[in-house]
Amino acid sequence: MKKIYSILFLLIAVSLGFSSCSDDDVVKTQLEAPAISSDITKATSLSFNWQPVAGATQYAYELYDANDNRVLGDMTSGTTLIATGLEPTTTYTLKVWAYAALTGDKSTSPIATLTATTTAQTPLANPVPSASSANGGVTITWPEVENATGYSYHYQDADGKEVSGQTETNSVLLTGLAIGEYTIYITATSSDPEYADSEPIALKFERTKAEVWRHTGTYTSAALGESFTATLVHYDDGSYTLENPLGEEGYSINFTVPEGSTEITPSTTADDYGYYSIYLSSKYYVSIYPSGGYSQFTGDEYAGEVWFCSYLYDYDGNQIGDTYGYDDFTWSDGDEIPEGCKAEVPAMLTTTWGQYAPFWNDTPTKDGKQCLTGCVATSLAQILNYYKYPAQLSDGTVIDWDNMLPSYEEGKYTDAQAAAVALLMARCGEVVNMQYGTDVSTSQVSDIENYGFAKKFGYIVKYYGYRDYPNQQDAKLWKEVIFKELSAGRPVLYGGTSYKNGENNYFSHSFVIDGYNSKGLVHVNYGFNGAGDAWVPIDKMPLKTGGWDETFDTYQTLVVIHRPQDGEINYELQPQ
């Protein structure tokens, strides 16, 4: 038989003691049993109280579940018990008794009992999910469920593997899904034990390919000797569609570019000789041979080119032209190169510098940590290194240009080479009033005119403020300054702010524009050890590398820097 060592047994033992009886022993009267009531019942808790018993100094209690298992037990001088951590819809029995001081004339009361039943948990309302697709992912959203503190979800991927997760928000982004149909189950949950999970609600959705970008450009037919306005569309499954290649609605060339290759693969079926036949208009179809170097795709959403070997035929099968040719489609966001400027200027900077070691070796430290050099100082230092001027500063500081390397890889530079670039970075930080920090170092670009740069380094400098608000500089004149400076062999210090990731996650950055190509795209050195450097449109200034995905198209700033032999800076950016 199971033994139950209850507080009741212990109290009886104490009250009886181990002394012998005598005629002088006091005759004790039993305390009255407590009168118990239960006033609050919840799914996981019960509240009890009892009336004070005259002469009682303590109360003992024990709570038992429906299987006579003791779940609580203790002594108290109070008259209230709140039992928590209980099971829903379960009946519990409370036993309470009173006892008095051992030296008094009262003995332990009879045991009073009361049963009470916890309520059922309140089920959370069911989520009402919906799905939307964008940028290669599917977002499942639903209105917030009252009293829910989280949500769980699960679905099967295209391979039948179960995928599950939890979120505290009312949405979940699913990425990496193959094209096809899926069913996801959403359940509302709560950390409050008074609430039960909702039912798992199923949502069927389809992962379809979504447009990532489109660009209008020029399609040139080799056989016809004509050019047409067409549009290239890129989808998040990696495919491309060249719409209306000969200017007629309803016709297109669909293709992919296999990973690791620049050759295109049309989405139709090739014949036995590797040719793909595609209708380009209501008059012509083309036979494309793309393999073995007979096609190429290069570019991105801003600029590029796709060409392929082709034979053109009319609908009667008559070949147009005497032989094959190469059809071509080009697109670009580049700007028109001003008259008098060179056709193109290769990137001038040979450096790919950054903000960490060894560049930060002479910056201040905070809490034992080295501060970053700052993007304005890093950009300025790279421009000055391009000129390798001056040999020394106005205060006599010698700049060791010969010991500066194009790039610094750990373990591949000497102490002298590290010291040379660190000194330059620190001096550049001084003349732009750098506010140093271990996570970010900042400065106002305009301070390049206010803290002695021109005097200390011997340069002529002009800060042109913001391109747009509040200055509203003329966009054409603004870009002409950039192209003219680059055409003259002078990099410019540029900057902008990106709101691509939201108003609360804006990112301001300064960098160097040091060249342009024949399509009017400029070359940007972002100052991240070469990461993200690219040919980009001035109006966009995108940065895509690693975890960065920004577009510095707002609050663009321009700084023109001349050596004395380059002459004064006299650009006018307002229309005359």
From TrEMBL:
Residues 1-20 form the signal peptide. Keywords: Signal. One of its GO terms (biological process) is proteolysis. Coiled coil: none annotated. SUPFAM superfamilies: Cysteine proteinases, Fibronectin type III. Residues 30-122 form the Fibronectin type-III domain. InterPro entries: FN3_dom (IPR003961), FN3_sf (IPR036116), Ig-like_fold (IPR013783), Papain-like_cys_pep_sf (IPR038765), Peptidase_C10 (IPR000200), Streptopain_sf (IPR044934). One of its GO terms (molecular function) is cysteine-type peptidase activity. It comes from the Bacteria. This is Fibronectin type-III domain-containing protein. It comes from Segatella hominis.
